[in-house]
Give the backbone structure.
Amino acid sequence: MIRPGTPADLPAIDAFDPFGDSRADEVAAGRLAVYERDGRAVGFLTVATDALLGHPFVSYLAVAPEARRQGVGSALLADAERRHTGLRLLISTEETNAPMRALLTARGYTVSGVLHGLNQDGPAEVFYYKDC
Ligand SMILES: CC(C)(COP(=O)(O)OP(=O)(O)OC[C@H]1O[C@@H](n2cnc3c(N)ncnc32)[C@H](O)[C@@H]1OP(=O)(O)O)[C@@H](O)C(=O)NCCC(=O)NCCS
């Protein structure tokens, strides 16, 4: 089941969130969706509205390691696409993130461009879009 995240989801999210900080702000703003399985959040997705030249931007997407390759990430993206019908949805990932890039290709996203320097000395960031 996909539903809006609540503060009660934060401990489960923190247990697998790879992005380093808290998702509390996104929950408080109503911008975080969770995929709940057996009463626990096993995936989440956040959207920043109006982030890039007025386009919504998926800022964070992660699935708990034990729940990967079971359609959770794809379902969260499909839900975000439905919620942004008629809009161009943007998303980005590091160029070395093969699972994420495969997921975006599988869901029909188009590469928009590559930005160097966003990840300090790390990999370039690849931006994608999809017309929902
Ligand atoms: C990227 C991520 C969100 C994918 O979530 P997921 O729930 O495992 O993805 P799904 O099961 O919905 O995969 C859907 C399709 O994407 C592709 N895919 C996903 N993971 C893949 C992998 N490890 N290798 C190859 N293809 C992959 C496949 O086409 C897959 O379909 P299939 O399983 O029928 O072959 C997950 O690996 C993750 O949380 N990674 C760490 C956080 C991260 O990198 N987030 C993105 C940064 S912005």
